[in-house]
Amino acid sequence: MDIIKQIQKEVWNLKIEDEKKLKIIEKCGEIEFRMVEGSDEYLQLQSLLASFL
Amino acid sequence: MLTHKYSPKSLKEIYGQNLALEKLKYNVQHKIPTILHGSTGTGKTSSVYALANELNFEVMELNASNFRNKDQIESIVGAASQQQSLFKKGKIILLDELDGISGTKDRGGLQALIKLLPKIRTSLVLVSNDIWDNKFSTLRKKFDLIEFNTPTHEIIFNFLKDISDKENIKYLEDDLKKLARSSNGDFRAALTDLQISLENNGLKVDLLSERNKTTEIFNSLKLIFKTLDPKIALSSLDNLKENLDEVALWLEENLPKEYHGQDLSKALDSLSKADVFKGRIIRQQYYRFMVYQIAFLTAGVALSKKEKNPGFVNYSRPSRILKMYIAKMRNSKKLAISKTLAEKTHTSTKRVMQNFGYYKRFLLNKDIISELELNEDEIKFLRS
Predict the structure, then answer these.
(1) What pTM was computed for the model?
(2) Residues 7 to 36 of A: which have CB under 8 A from any B CB?
(3) Fold of the CATH domain B153-208
(4) Nearest residue to B330 (alpha-carbon basis) of B374, B267, B375, B378
(5) Fold for domain B2-147?
(6) Chain A hits for B230, Cβ within 8 Å
């Protein structure tokens, strides 16, 4: 959970296209939602990181 | 954000209020309770912070985001005014946005404050836009009033010029003059306008026409609609009183005026995503989702466009709430009739509502009217 917090804070400082930043934020939100719903944090984090590729 | 970067650190950085500042400094040092008043964006709140910085005082601020009812005033102001500051030399208690203090939420707040007054041992500063409001009449007698003048165009112009120099912005003096004039003596508005007319370190002032005194939400909307930098968009809501739902309504109302075609659909998509997270906040009671809600409301909408719309747009108040209200009023008569009818006929109100068109045909029969005891309004509604 803390990792997600950090990610969505730092995203805006990255040197990538702004649209991609927004996509990442969206994905973060989705993953965090799933975590709050009670799914496995480790698995969800994997999926988040994989989506950045 | 320029408005953050150039919030004044010392009294010298506040433009055009020399007299008021001297008096403020004296009052704070001698712990005379003070009210600062003057129109928006003249530097009232900023000067309190600047002064605190200069004197190495601590500022305790209570603004509109706190409820300021009797209990809270007593517990917070009361306690704080008795205690010394832990790390700084002194303490200023600042009640900002005093105009918002009345109403049901803050009941008794002003009276509590007046009662506390003799006991307070720190400096107390109140900030208000319109001190001549009736509700402040007792307050006016107990406090020392300091007025902040609305600055002239030249003062604002000098202010903008200094900042442009510091920021290495290339500008034409005429452009800055235009900005200064359209700000109507509001430093914050002037700075916001400067920010949005920036383009690659140059200034492009064609999008601004005369503004009438804007409320803060206008500034936020303008920042969101006219910037392509997500960071600026993200911070646009920082100082806003309105809640996010209201911002969403404003955005929704004014989106079609700014964006067209693909951009519009993207922006609406972003709005709807923000709404999804709002729903999740409410359902889960998990307020961290607000980060995402804000991100979609601001950066999402801002980045939906490919380029700025250069024209000036007059933003309007959201009309959806009004429309919903009108529809509800219209429906209320139907609902009332249905309820009485449902009671007499032993059906559910819902079913009567569904088949209202059918019932309506024989409801105007005299016997039925007297049986249901319908009133004039309801009969009129049935006839129409």
Answers:
(1) 0.49
(2) 8, 12, 18-19, 21-22, 25-26, 28-29, 32-33, 36
(3) Helicase, Ruva Protein; domain 3 (1.10.8)
(4) B378
(5) Rossmann fold (3.40.50)
(6) 12, 18, 21-22
